[in-house]
Specification:
alpha+beta; Jelly Rolls; 13 strands; globular
């Protein structure tokens, strides 16, 4: 695969890091080359079984594909601009490297509801029940197992192309909602009232160009939406793993931005 020269790693600015803490996300523009996104889409199109040149074959609003670890996806998730940002937001040595981008919800223009567009935060680990029941997976206030939610744009995403909806600052309220659940954590589905309680917050959409990546706090409330545009949307939304749970009371006060955001939500 021929790609453009790799972008030199550029550190997030102080203002970007503060925005991550207070707003819950930061957008890394051109995190990986457009040519990598183009090569990845070719693989994904073949996996959908649809013809990219024949919209009549796009018969459902969303197609879910399994994990892909081919070279374009490995290239994207290990881009220097991102690994540098991981260190800045989560801390060197505290996150688990990836070589793939997880499952893919490929969204197609459709008048049908996708059926998966409710507000939520992503869970991190299974509880004591059926591990295949993702809605019963759990989240703790120390974010056990998850450092970030990441949105990798593999196609250009405009306002009509089903961009992920984000409630700005919702991660702060969710930290407070999770605190009473302690170490066992809360089930993803058990927080529906807490998601609903963030409806008054300002909303934005994860639009951008192929190669952009949104790095989101794991407690950020977000949702899919119907696709009203013309171009299918290709986006991966993998977690970045966390080696050890966040520490919210450090004797030295050396908190990472991930931890600072949780503490801010808890009023500390």
């Amino acid at each position: 695969m021929q790609t453009a020269p790799e972008r030199k790693a550029v550190m997030l600015t102080d203002s970007q890091i503060e925005a991550f803490v207070t707003d819950g996300y930061v957008r890394v523009e051109r995190a990986f080359p457009r040519a990598v996104a183009d090569a990845g889409r070719e693989i994904l199109w073949r996996a959908t079984g649809f013809d990219p040149h024949e919209p009549a074959t796009w018969t459902v609003p969303v197609v879910r594909l399994a994990d892909h670890a081919e070279e374009p996806f490995r290239h994207a998730v290990t881009a220097p601009a991102l690994t540098e940002a991981f260190d800045q937001l989560v801390g060197p040595g505290r996150w688990i490297p990836r070589n793939s981008l997880g499952s893919w919800p490929i969204r197609f223009p459709s008048a049908e509801s996708p059926g998966d567009d409710g507000w939520h935060i992503d869970a991190s680990f299974p509880g004591s029940g059926d591990p295949g029941d993702y809605f019963r997976w759990r989240i703790t206030v120390t974010s056990t197992g998850r450092a970030l939610l990441m949105l990798f744009l593999f196609s250009d995403v405009g306002p009509d192309d089903a961009p992920t909806r984000i409630r700005i600052g919702s991660h702060l309220r969710m930290a407070k909602a999770l605190e009473p659940h302690g170490l066992p954590g809360a089930e993803m589905i058990g927080l529906l009232d807490d998601y609903a309680a963030t409806a008054d917050l300002p909303e934005t959409a994860a639009t951008g160009a192929a190669g952009d990546v949104y790095l989101c706090h794991p407690f950020l409330v977000h949702a899919a939406q119907p696709h009203r545009g013309r171009r299918p949307k290709f986006m991966a939304q993998p977690p970045l793993g966390l080696r050890d749970p966040c520490v919210l009371d450090r004797a030295d006060g050396a908190y990472t931005p991930l931890e600072r955001a949780i503490r801010l939500g808890l009023g500390r």
